[in-house]
Amino acid sequence: MTFRDLLKKIAGGPHTSKDLSREEAALALEYMLTGQATPAQIGAFLIAHRMKRPTGVELAGMLDTYDRLGCQLQAIDSAYLPLVMGCPYDGRSRTFPLVPITALILASAQCPVILHGGDRIPPKYGVSLVELWQGLGVDWTALPWAQVQHSLEQHRLALVYQPQHFPLALSLIPYREELGKRPPVATLELMWSPYAGTARIAVGYVHPPTEQLIVDALQTRGVEHFLMVKGWEGSVDLPGNRPAIVQSYDRPGELERLPLHPETYGIKFTDYPFIDGADWVAQVQNLLVKPETATPALYDSVRWNAGFYLWRSGVTPSLETGMSLTAELLASGQVHQTLQALKGGVIP
Can you give the residue range of the structural domain that contains 100? Predict the structure, then answer.
């Protein structure tokens, strides 16, 4: 099929538009990423697809194309499945990002973590994971692929930097600015796993209809382990000012809704605000070096989040023991040591 055929199929309006098959959706994204579609066609497709609403099958097909054209870290030996944390590529602007801290804590407990993303991008232009890591002295932006693989094997932590490691995907970013909306490919990014082996995928989201979309896409692709988290600003950071809405899936089995009420675990805090990058770095460095002096709300946020992921990754038998292990790793200085080792091993 030509790209024009695919565009006509989804852009027929409320009465005549049709969903794409998995193979057709994979082909459509390939045409866009490789420049076989014109800019006018790409813009029309992205907005028509958003208006029609993507299906899980369509996103599964697009993920097939990401796997085929993108990059994948090779499987490593580990006692725990690597955790791939999917967060919106356009970043955060209101709440304190905890993903890098959670990743350091899990890596300190020998649970591998894979992050992915790029620089600040539209429409939100929020602070990116890459920028936060740079503030801590870890620059992922110039690493050759072999060194990213080495970091995962040696330090149990890696970040796939899209502009360096999957540049084809950058071709769609200008359309986000011109359209002023997140295209369906933004949902695709949340579910992508740049890892060749079996992993547990944590997917952040905001809107309730996205839940079923994620389930349909990942189950269509045969993903055996995933978490869906209605987190801060669509990230995988669990909130503390309300019950956390989380669903977990491990095959064979059914989707499990986890009732996570912070007060049940002795946790009660408001969502910790994000001020700017400099403040974030100062607070994180203080937390890692002198956790006893950290702001209580931030410290509780970290225990709540890292404890949850330690539990769901199988490192600890419960959320309570996960929070206790988090406190121990911070107090012993082991998380700070992990950061120092990462800095020494990642900086070219």
Answer: 78-348
